[in-house]
Amino acid sequence: MVNLARSRPSRLECDEECAVLERNRRLANALHIQNADVSNRVGPPCYSEFLKDEARKNPSFMLSVHQTLTQLVQTARQSKQKFRSHCFPSMNREQRRAVHELAEFFGCDTQSYDQEPFRNVVVTAYKDRCRIPSGSVVAVVQREAAPTPQRKGPAPLPQSRKRIDTVASSSMPLPLNSSQGHSASIAQPEVAPTTTTFDYFNFTS
C-alpha cells in the first residue's frame, strides 16, 4: 500500500509550448497589458470548414456576427463587471451553430434558449479571458478565393534597342594578342611610291 502522505506530489513538465505561453504571460504582466493573447499563433485562426462554407453562402450574416462579437468583447474589457452578455435574435439551426463555433474564437461562452422556432443564442464574454481574433472568417475565405499572382518574365527588348546593341558590339576594337605585347599596332596597307620619268630627247623650247 502506498503512503500518500509521504509521497511527493508529481509535477508535470513544461514543454516548449508551455514555456512560450509562460514567457508571454510574464511579459504581458510586466507591461501591464490586460487580456493579452499569450498564445504563439501567427496569422488568422484556423476556422472550420463549416464556418468557411457559411461565410461563402452568407457572408453578410457571418460578418455581422463577427462585428457583434467584437463589440461585445470590447465592451466586456472596458466594463467594471466580470462579464457582459449579448442575446442574438431567433435563428435556424445552421445559424446558431455558426454563432456557437465563431464565439469560441473570441473566448466566449454560448448557450441556447427557448424552443423552435424562437430558439436563440446568448453569448457571454468574460473580462479576464475574452479576446478578438486576428482576422474574420469572411476575410479568410476571400483571401483563399483570390487568384495567386503569377510572376512575369522580363519584357522583350524593342527592335531599336536590339539593333543598337548589335552595332555597338560589332564596332568594339578587337583585343590584342597577348604574344604581341603592348607595342603591337594595326598593320597599314602598303602604297606603291610614285615616280616621275623625264624624257630629255622630247624637250621643246
Automatic annotation (TrEMBL):
Gene Ontology terms for molecular function: DNA-binding transcription factor activity, RNA polymerase II-specific; RNA polymerase II transcription regulatory region sequence-specific DNA binding
PROSITE patterns, A to Z: R3H
Gene Ontology CC annotations of this record: nucleus
Domain R3H: 59-127
UniProt-listed Gene3D superfamilies: R3H-like domain
Gene Ontology biological process terms from the UniProt entry: negative regulation of transcription by RNA polymerase II
Name assigned to this protein: Transcriptional repressor NF-X1
The species this protein was found in: Rhipicephalus zambeziensis
Lineage per the UniProt record: Eukaryota, Metazoa, Ecdysozoa, Arthropoda, Chelicerata
